[in-house]
Task: structure prediction
Amino acid sequence: MTMCTVQLLQLPLHPSSAWEPTGNIPLASAILAASAALPVESIFPGELLNTLGDTALLKELKRRDPELLGVTLYMWNRERTLHLLQKLKLWKPELLVVAGGPEVTQDNHSLLSEPSIDLFVAGEGESFASDVLSPEKLRSILSSGTKLLGPVVDTDLPDRWPDPYETGYITPGTKGSVHIETQRGCGSLCSYCAYRRTSPVPRIIPADKVLNRIHMLQEMGAGELVFLDPTFNSRPDLGILLDGMSNLGLDCFAEVRSDFIRSSKTTNALALAGFTSLEVGLQTMSTRVLHSIGRGGDPQSILKGASLLKQSGITPIMDLILGLPGDNPENIEHAARELISLDLHDQVQTFCLSVLPGTELRANAEELRIQYDDRPPYTVTRAGQYSIQNLLQTRERVSDILGYDADPPERPVLSDSFPGIEVFIPENNQPQISPSSRHGVLRISTHDAWANRNSIINKTRERREKDPYCPLDVVIQPEDVFPLDLIDMLRDIPEPVCYTSTKADMYQLPGLLRIAVVMPLSTNPDWLAECSGIALTVVRSDSAVSLPGGQVGLLLEGNYDLDSLSALYSEAPHLVFFARKELEILWNLDVLGLG
Result:
């Protein structure tokens, strides 16, 4: 491999399941590399970004030894990226670092004070790429004392820059997923979104050009299109675009305003174009609140459009936001009941408001009586008279109304094979070289977990220190029951403060350390029930027996027909696991929908 002086890096979000795709397609890196005419090798490979742990990633970056490193910062990868940058700067102080992405805004003061980043670039980066991604030119910029390049208002269409797929900077792969932009900017003026300030006028690529790009991507092997457009159906030539996409055999996804949908003609065209689900932003049942935050629209019109989508076979993914200024819990609970009554409750995302950097909401937070955490995910901590505890209680009530939890349960790796597995036997004192994987698995096989608790805790701590910003499944497989204090002792191992751990703590979910216990089928049921109250607990079986009851799961060994099993365990499919990796992956994708 040819070593490049520039490397472009975009770290992924950690999904809830190790088998779930990260969705981390380095489109931003590819666009910038194409705009700056950098070598293709300047883009750090996606397969490594999605699989390497912190230590392995750091080692690989040192091996590549770049002169300049460009990073794309989102709220979900910010702290992990900064951790790597700090390590790299200690190793090579002269390394040049440029950061862009949604996190880089002029009011994100906690980020802009980060010393490991030499230059921040806010807004769209193509016009700066040739300068800031050249070590010589970057040094000249830095010599003037510049630390931040503010956003430039671009009035040209986004396709004026080289297409990263057409120029070979990124490839979709066979039946692969492709992220595609057909517009930038947004006509909706939502105060919680940064587009209101940086790009309020939509710049839309005409339908004929978009169709040419889609045909090219399909010829290259693309099977799925994820449209990054802020509002896919805001374009005036939507009908022409959908007609051209009709029956291409692609799976498509986008975000839409369902109140823009007036007839089944549009929803049928969306279905024929390959859309099986669409994200719809209901947010609240209060018209007054929607208008006060700049979004506008009418909740009943939104629901009517969502119903038309459902009638055309498209699943509307409905969003509800807790903590919007001037809103109250009754409006959100009313929204949940409306969704139930209209049969629109299949996929509802209920989350607390994020007061994002660069938004009008953040600029006016004090006036709006909004308080928030200044670190990702920037969660509102008080909205008027409502505390975060009030909002979280409302979220629980919404889950009760909908009949399912707002968050998918943890899904640790219990199968026999996985790239990040390390089997640790405390009774065997031979040292091992621990893997460094983005999703790690520490499988503890022991006669007596309690007698070996110090070794187990020390080994877990060692793995956490090796990859502190990565998920780690700690799977305890003892031969007999043990005092459950051991689980509390493992949970006392500190985690870094980051998007994943902060969000998990707020919603009372496992964070980066995910503990599971695997026991024999004959284990005392009372102990299993108690253990399942504090950690995922399963029993092993070589046949499809009934679930043990409560929250105790089943680890099935051997081969099974998944269609039969999905019917047998339809009440609690999330409690069924497989020792065979192939079956576990299919169960995740086809039954649980994690993919």
User: Anything to note?
Assistant: The longest helix spans residues 388-402. The mean pLDDT is 94.
